[in-house]
Sequence to fold (167 residues):
Amino acid sequence: NSNLDLNIVTDQDKELLKYLNPNLNLIVIPNGVNLDYFKPIGKEDDVPSLIYVSDMSGSPTAENVLHFYNDIFPLIKEKVPDVKLYLVGRNPAKEIEELSSDPSVLVTGYVEDVRPYLSKSWVFVAPMIMGTGIKNKVLEAMSMGKSVVSTKIGAQGIQAFPDKDLF
Fold:
């Protein structure tokens, strides 16, 4: 229906959808974050820790997590052997749950409040190799004063500068 207005969150998504259907009427309304709710608390782990937050049930999330765990995390552990990885989010897929057999990985499943996990982690990782839209969890981590390491996809739609606002 060419008369339908669609709200989307990034210019990149708008360009892709317009390419697929030039007749769409698309309106970009970026996401935001509650700065009063997601604010620095300052209670970090004693050992280096990383956190990835997502709904852990979908295939894209599993692929993102497994890519990070298999291809990137070993390089980090080589340099920082005592590093911990928190995988926080509801409904972890079986292949994500299996990562908890590694003592350096904690798969939480659903948590009532993500802020304590964000607060204690040293670095937020957004290792997306696929996905669209703005990653609200990246905004929340940034709001809590966390360092963020991301792929271009994980930072998509966020008005942040590489090597300044995130890495």
Remarks:
- The beta strands are 5-8, 25-28, 49-53, 84-88, 105-109, 123-126, 147-150.
- Residues 2 and 23 are 5 Å apart (CA to CA).
